[in-house]
Design a protein that fits this description.
The protein has 3 helices and 15 strands. The chain is an alpha+beta fold. The chain has 2 domains: 80 residues, SH3 Domains (SH3 type barrels), CATH 2.30.30; 136 residues, no CATH class. An 8-stranded antiparallel sheet has the order 8-9-10-11-15-14-13-12, with helices on one face. A 5-stranded antiparallel sheet has the order 6-5-4-1-7, with no helix packed on it. The termini are far apart. The relative contact order is 0.13.
């Protein structure tokens, strides 16, 4: 009986000691691309650089205990662990702060290459499942006033997008609610940064003169000095990110 017990114990050890790797597909949100390195630190050998929007296979139970913090702008930090990844037949590590679970918004490479970029509204339509939409047009009482169009899109995951045009003379406005369970704060920031950048390049700018600013209670804003004076403000609640600002699209 003693030998039978030993044999059973040896057979059971692998069942409890081995955890098979699990994987997920994530996407590069870093504008200049994201390095893959031989070890989980920024000084390790660089194996390659994945481009913005590239799909990366991430070993979800392969996070390194090593973390890194990057200050995007004063008061706004991106902190994440290094994750084990597989990309183009190579294994290595990437900083997880610039990897997102959703494909990023299509970006402008230059002023002449903006034709295929997305507005924020189209990004949500292309990425998530639409639950319902509603459109209302308000006819002005005075002939000198503008006709106002209000649109609402609600998605299955709880995202709500409201668009008013014109909000005031020559401008439109978008108000967006994103549940924290759908996007991280880093994804929200990088999404808006790209949308503002797209709009500025469309108007002939070279790079967003981004007036990124952290405000009280976790609020931050992104602005670009263009003809449209583009801006977006993000407020954080317990359950949502609330985005408001003049319409930013390409």
């Amino acid at each position: 009986m003693r030998y039978i017990g030993i044999i059973l114990s040896l057979l059971l050890i692998p069942l409890f000691s081995f955890s098979p790797p699990t994987q997920s597909i994530q996407y590069v949100w870093a504008h200049s691309g994201l390095s893959i390195r031989s070890a989980p630190n920024k000084n390790a050998k660089r194996i390659g650089v994945a481009n913005y929007g590239d799909a990366i296979t991430v070993q979800t139970n392969g996070q390194s205990p090593t973390s890194m913090t990057i200050e995007e702008f004063q008061g706004f930090f991106i902190e994440s662990q290094w994750v084990k990844v597989y990309w183009r037949g190579q294994a290595g590590y990437m900083f997880g702060g610039y990897l997102g679970q959703w494909k990023p918004i299509v970006k402008c490479v230059s002023e002449k290459a903006c034709q295929n970029t997305q507005s924020l509204e189209n990004y949500f339509k292309d990425t998530f499942s639409l639950k319902y939409e509603d459109h209302v047009t308000h006819t002005p009482d005075s002939p000198i006033d503008y006709e106002v169009k209000e649109s609402l899109w609600v998605y299955d995951n709880g995202i709500e997008v409201r668009h008013t045009s014109p909000w005031e003379i020559g401008n439109s406005r978008s108000d967006i609610k994103i549940p924290k369970s759908v996007m991280s704060r880093e994804e929200v920031y990088l999404l808006l940064y790209t949308a503002v950048r797209n709009s500025q390049l469309w108007e002939g700018g070279k790079r967003p003169a981004v007036g990124q600013e952290m405000q009280k209670e976790g609020t931050f804003s992104i602005t670009a000095d263009t003809m449209s004076s583009l801006y977006a403000t993000v407020k954080t609640t317990h359950t949502h990110y609330i985005i408001s600002g003049i319409y930013v699209s390409c």
